[in-house]
Amino acid sequence: MRKPLIAGNWKMNKTLAEGVRLVQDLSYLVEDVEDVDIVVCPPFTILKGISTLIEYDKPNIKLGAQNMHWEQEGAYTGEISPLMLKDLNVEFVILGHSERRRYFFETDEIINRKVKAAFKFKISPILCLGESLEEREAGKTFEVVQNQLFKALEGVSQEEVKHLIIAYEPVWAIGTGKSAFPEDANDTIRHIRALIGSKFTPEIAKNQLVLYGGSVTPENIAEFMVEPDIDGALVGGASLDAVSFSRIIKFRG
Ligand code: PGA
After folding, report:
1. What residues line ligand 1, using a CB cutoff of 6 Å?
2. What is the pLDDT of residues 216-247, one digit of tens each?
3. For residues 170 and 182, what is the distance between their CA atoms, to the nearest angstrom?
4. 18 catalytic, yes or no?
């Protein structure tokens, strides 16, 4: 059985005081939740603060980062390495987010290097895939996600891929308030799972966590979670408020 996972992508939001407050409020609201894995992905500047809070308070909340470089160290001004994240007990890292692809020109090749580096440092990548509106209207959704998936996983072993998390995030649904239809998202996610099966094994495909992302809210989360192939959500805007994020985590009501 795949255990649902709900991750909050804070993007470029929250000072240290705001982030600490959010995690404290959230941990109180979700303290009885055992059947969902909960991850928060704050910006780099406050990872240390949130990591310390998690270390002392031991809430049922895990820590993720939003990006990283593929090298462990070196002359890469402004970058953060997997070793540095590991040092802060970061367990997850979002890779290939459409905002990184679009605004920071991350290619599939760069994402592939980062994915391999994450596995090397035993950090679970949350690999984002998704088509643009133009690609969707041209009927290319399956082709686009297949390309992104296979390129990102080039050279990844069967052992490593067991620690992979995939987030299907149609670009047109991110931050727009226009979420996908749950059945459509499920179709694409079923396809992604089949692709994992063809590249690796049916057993790996069966255990593969695939999340949906794009304008998830407390109001629509349940409709996604009833779909058989959707294992959770990557949440942006609605994860910035403890009450709204906790309602998403408690999607069963
Ligand atoms: P959103 O962002 O929930 O604000 O649409 C999702 C994401 O970018 O991961």
Report:
1. 9, 169, 174-175, 213-216, 234-238
2. 999 999 999 999 999 999 999 999 999 999 99
3. 12
4. no
